[in-house]
Amino acid sequence: MPRGSQMESKRRRGEAEEEEEEGYPWKKQTTTRTQRKKGDWSLKDFEIGKPLGKGKFGRVYLAREVQSKYIVALKVIFKKQIEKYGIGHQLRRELEIQSNLGHPNILRLFGWFHDEERIFLILEYAHRGELYKLLRRNNFLSETQSATYIASLANALAYCHQKHVIHRDIKPENLLLDHQGQLKIADFGWSVQSEKKRRTMCGTLDYLAPELVEQRTYDYAVDNWTLGILCYEFLYGVPPFEAESQADTFRRIKEIDLNFPPAPLVSAEAKDLITKLLVKESSQRLSLQKIMEHPWIVKNADPTGTCKN
Ligand code: ATP
Ligand code: MG
Fold first, then answer.
1. How many CB atoms lie within 10 A of CB 36?
2. Protein residue closest via CA to atom 5 of ligand 1
3. Which of 124, 148, 166 is at the close of a domain?
4. CA–CA distance, 158 with 166 (Å, rounded to integer)
5. Which atom in ligand 1 lies closest to the alpha carbon of residue 190?
6. The domain that contains 73 carries what CATH number?
């Protein structure tokens, strides 16, 4: 990890007593709970590279911190958009939450800054991009790949639930892969905002738990449900309750209209795990701990969490 002099001085300006974390030059800045380092970063600190993608609120670019040469992804969000949806305060709060999450399977938010029109998020760069693209390219994933990703997700979610954070918006588009093929959950803490967006922008309902579809109270178990949906989608290439219309998807989720097609061939153990997660009564869903101990995971998941694609 290169550490330039500017980086060092930024560090010194930061809270020197905070714990060091090797490999994360922005750790100091992001862990601050004061306004002291506000404005520490600006666009001048970065060389902007190729665009990596386009989201609903802005664009993401490859970028390099000038002094340290550290490669990051810079997400640019237009303030106008944030104002339009009235989510400024919430965004701020959620960025605070995300920047305090440190887990190998959660995309790091190193820090953020803004100018007149835009907010810039300094994110860990996920070299291999969206898991979704891998899924589209291969149609479906192997049991080893699927189990590895589900185990990584269960691990990351257990960490989040411990910190009282529920994601609620886990879907393949929000799952990125780093250069080793390790899964990274992106857009953490964007959940409430994403839901608002979903209602206003007609996004997919495929990943919503029945209690969310029915607008009932919900808890951490919504994320466990989503693991069942993803496990199915990894193995079969399509989410289980996909339908022509939103109304039909709604109905299929509410009725747990779950079928396992004959092809591709999927093991009985994998189906067992899916069936134990896609349970209407949220308290009856398999716990994250039990997912990690499930025979299919134990047998198939790569313990290093990396996958050759
Ligand atoms: P939103 O985050 O607003 O819900 P989104 O997920 O569609 O929307 P972004 O998060 O802005 O969009 O990202 C757009 C695309 O840019 C992603 O789908 C991904 O391909 C790419 N991308 C985003 N962040 C990174 C990153 N850290 N590393 C590599 N690629 C990224
Ligand atoms: Mg995203």
1. 12
2. 55
3. 124
4. 10
5. 4
6. 3.30.200.20
118 and 134 part of one domain: no
What's the number of domains the chain is made of?
2
**Catalytic (active site) residue 169:** yes
Total residues belonging to the chain: 309
Which pTM does this prediction carry? 0.83
Residue 272's CATH number: 1.10.510.10
pLDDT tens for 144-166 read: 999 999 999 999 999 988 888 87
Residues lining ligand 2 (ion), CB within 5 A? Answer: 187
Q: Tell me which residue range forms the domain holding 153.
A: 129-300
Separation between Cα atoms, residue 246 and residue 175, nearest integer Å:
23
Q: Which atom of ligand 1 is nearest to the CA of 107?
A: 27
Enumerate residues lining ligand 1, CB below 6 A: 52-57, 60, 73, 75, 107, 123-126, 129-130, 173-174, 176, 186-187, 190, 194
pLDDT in tens, 60-72: 999 999 999 999 9
Tell whether 126 is in a known binding site.
yes
| 79 labelled ligand-binding | yes
Tell me the CA distances in angstroms from 251 to 153, 227, 283, one per residue in order: 27, 20, 21
